[in-house]
Amino acid sequence: MELSGEWRLQHYEVGQVPPLQLADPGLDDRFWMTAAVPGDVHSALIERKLIEHPYYGHNDIKCRWIEQKEWWYRTKFQLDEAPSRAERLELAFEGLDTFATIYVNGLEIGRTANMHRRYVYDVTGIVNRGRNTVAVKFDPLFLHNRDKAQMQWSSYTKERPWIRKAAMNFGWDWGPRMVTTGIWGKVYLKRSKRARLDSVYARTDTADKDRATVRASIEAKCFDRSAELTYRACLIDALGKTAAEAAGKLERSCAELSLTIDCPELWWTHDLGRPYMYELEVVLYAGGQETDRYRKPFGIRTIELLLEDEQGRNAFAFLLNGVRLFAKGSNWIPVDNLIGSAPDKRYTDLIELAVESNMNMLRIWAGGIYEKDIFYDECDRLGVLVWQDFAFANALFPDYNADFMDNVRQEAICNVKRLRNHASLALWCGNNEIDWLYDMKSSDGDITCPFYGESIYHALLPEVLEQYDDSRPYWPSSPYGGNDANDPEVGDRHNWQVWHGSVYPRRFGEPTKLDYSIEGVTFKNYKKDFTLFSSEFGMHASANRHTLEKYVPDEEFYWGSVEMAYRNKDTNHQKGILLMEGYTGIPSDIEEYMRFSMLTQAEGLKYGIEHYRRNKARTSGSLIWQHGDSWPGTSWSLIDYELLPKASYYYARKFYQPLHLTLDHEPGEPLKLWVVNDRLQAYSGKVMLQVYDLEGRLAKTLETAAEVGANTAAKLGEWEEPDILGGLAPDRALVRLSAPGWDCEDNFYYLRDPKELDLPQAQLTASVDAERGVVTVQAAGAVARLVTIDIPQGNVRMSDNFFELLPGESKTIKLRQADGQPMLLDRIRISALNAVSTTPLKG
């Protein structure tokens, strides 16, 4: 029984009222406000209009008082029958944020100290037939960290290392401080008779096209010592037929079993095959009577982390069902600062967007949460692998404290057991950037103490995984490996030379250097990076116009305003200006800022990722920082807070295509034509390279025979720039790559940066067909650079946006509003960098 009915919420000063008085079943709480569970205090106050929305303007600062108060939740539930002697009633909380005391019928039953854990309490002897009351008190955090030793290093705030809570709550370089509290997970009451399943753990031992073996472990809790416990387990295919089954007896409430499946359907990422899911069913019997049942989707697949290739060279590559994968994806932060009230639909939308952009991996970043079940369920369903960080980010942690370490151990066990059956889960990772930054900060003299927390990632977590999940690889940190823990020759790498200006190469113990110059931050530095796996890299871009206008006061909506600066939480705003200065030029107003920053981010990521993909014989993955936003700001995200993709997202749809044509070129140097193939079949055919002047006239066509093997990259040809241009000025040239017989999109390249182009004025015309939900755009006069379709509405999906259009060509774009709302088609505006905004005619 889920306790999702009416909950009441109220706040008090710390110690204002004795706790037992507020927990008393007879307390009259009629005048408390109502609140949703799951949810959070901030969202309840927003809904009741007791605070202004904290995402608008500087309103988040007005809400700081919330974290200083004591907050109480109360609810009632009806029990038709009191538990019998052979029954147990357990009260489960899937998420309590963070220091809570729980009362049932006025009696304290437990205390919590970890947002990341699930808590279960036996309330059999406390509940009554009839009405029962649950009360939960949340302490302000300062009561639990004010007497703790401060760590020398804890990014953004010194208060968080002792508190097992989402680090981003305290502010990060893409979001504000918003310290939440409340019941952020489901609450339910479970009645069990004689025995219940405590754990079902299933993993694929072996799998190929002929046969697969699934090994399962069952643990039960028995409340009747005289009962013999037995089980029946089976795998059920998509047609409802039993593919494999086993039955037996539990010894000491445990059982090990094996299921063998002939001609199995394997789980693949969506780009390599079908993410096929069986149903795993386990039925528990006590004395021959069914007493509990587990049934959840289960994917048969093997996953390995390859650290050395066949030639004995270092590698960092995922093998899915024996196939070496190029990981294409992004880093995932929480979908909202108000985590508890974020709807499941927001998760589905963001993961669907990942799939639509050809991503096959998402990395759960350590400064957020172990995500909600909906995230992993959707990744299983849609065929997306998950890199899962443990929740330790950018700080030292007190591993010398036994109570803290026990809390961490229970957190790890809880989440490993919860997530280990998911086919999508590919890797456990100990932390984000701690090993790497500890050395850097020690070398700079910012840290002089021991590596507090080291034993968590290098001892405790491996021990937990050895006991509770032996089916997938573990990696101690990200980045990790080599001569400075961020070495392109070993392990995975975070490339923050681009954007942050980190100077490389660097070795352990060497002082860090930053180069805040155009050359130091430019995305052209990506070509110097021959990493084995790039797990974090990126650059800022503005949010879309609708998102900014919704949350920025009108009088502050201009380039250089205090409010626009407040949207950017990065440490040095000059980095973004330098990046644009070197590529597009410095924007002069808000319009140019939105366009220039989006274009720089999109072209920069394309530049870097195409480099990584051309080198796929060595490099095996690129995970962009970051996928979405938890708050409407300026950030590294591909998709802004209102679920509107930026230009970089639409670019990603193309540069992450499994079959992709790409050009390796620098000004004045040869043009090198490549094809990258991530598919498991070879391709042969013809590839065309066409050169246009910027008025759209075709100046040259080259056609070359092309062959590319399965899961490889191949160089097709190389031509000197003057030979390709044939007298055409390089600042007036556009190159188009196409392969008419292949399933891949055309790719466009300008041979000089935007600020150097002699770009003529283009004209755009457009028409909209409301019945079909499409808009058709046509260019005239010149190539239209970065054609942008803008609708003042959130969660709008388009088949394409931010694209190039040659004069005389037209493009039809499908539109839909993903929440099912009517499209504001009468408010569409279409523009380009070199074309004024136009309103489509109604078709």
UniProtKB/TrEMBL annotation:
Keyword Hydrolase: yes
UniProt catalytic activity: Hydrolysis of terminal, non-reducing beta-D-mannose residues in beta-D-mannosides
GO BP: carbohydrate metabolic process; glycoprotein catabolic process
E.C. number: 3.2.1.25
Protein keywords: Glycoprotein, Glycosidase, Hydrolase, Secreted
Gene Ontology MF terms in the entry: beta-mannosidase activity
GO CC, alphabetical: extracellular region
InterPro entries: Beta-gal/glucu_dom_sf, Beta-mannosidase-like_N2, Beta-mannosidase_GH2, Beta-mannosidase_Ig, Galactose-bd-like_sf, GH, Ig-like_fold, Ig-like_GH2
Compartments in which it is found: Secreted
Family to which this protein belongs: Belongs to the glycosyl hydrolase 2 family. Beta-mannosidase B subfamily.
Protein name: Beta-mannosidase B
